[in-house]
Write a structure and sequence with these properties.
three-stranded antiparallel beta sheet
């Protein structure tokens, strides 16, 4: 602005602001004077962001005679906050996509687990049927492993040979 302090003193704030900003500030100044309460606000002028505080200044008679205005340039803070917001949105989108992917994989695993459980139940039922058939067969059944040890014998075979099943399995 190339303006000295002496040039500011005694002038109206409106003289230094664009007309639309001057009207807004006048309303805020009037509010501070009438309510005797400070106000804070943020605004943007051009490509700059400002945080402003307007405080009433009372005379010894407790009447508002002046106001103190402080404006802080928060442009870098705002730009950083906007970048953070943008990154947060991108992160939320990635988390959402990954959550959907994981839900689909979880559904596939649940289906696969259910299939394995069903297969296991069917196998258990088949083994039980087989065991009943072998245990109740009129023929003797004797299974010997590669080391010539008994790995299975049904009761009929044990009876034919005159041993108990436990005696035969121990050999």
């Amino acid at each position: 602005m190339n303006t000295t302090l002496d040039q500011f003193v005694g002038t109206f704030v409106h003289d230094w602001l664009p007309p639309d900003v001057a009207r807004s500030r006048q309303g805020q100044l009037d509010k501070v004077v009438h309510t005797a309460q400070p106000i804070q606000f943020e605004d943007k002028r051009g490509d700059r962001y400002f945080h402003s505080i307007i405080c009433p200044v009372a005379s010894s008679k407790k009447t508002i005679t002046k106001v103190a205005v402080v404006a802080i340039d928060i442009t870098e803070y705002k730009k950083t906050q906007l970048r953070i917001d943008k990154l947060n949105e991108a992160l939320k989108e990635r988390v959402s996509q990954r959550t959907h992917q994981l839900a689909a994989v979880n559904q596939e695993l649940t289906t696969e687990i259910a299939s394995h459980q069903q297969t296991e139940r069917a196998l258990t039922a088949s083994e039980e049927r087989y065991r009943r058939i072998v245990d109740t067969a009129q023929e003797g059944i004797w299974v010997i492993d590669a080391e010539a040890k008994t790995s299975f014998v049904n009761q009929r075979m044990a009876d034919i040979l005159g041993y108990s099943r436990s005696e035969m399995l121990a050999r």
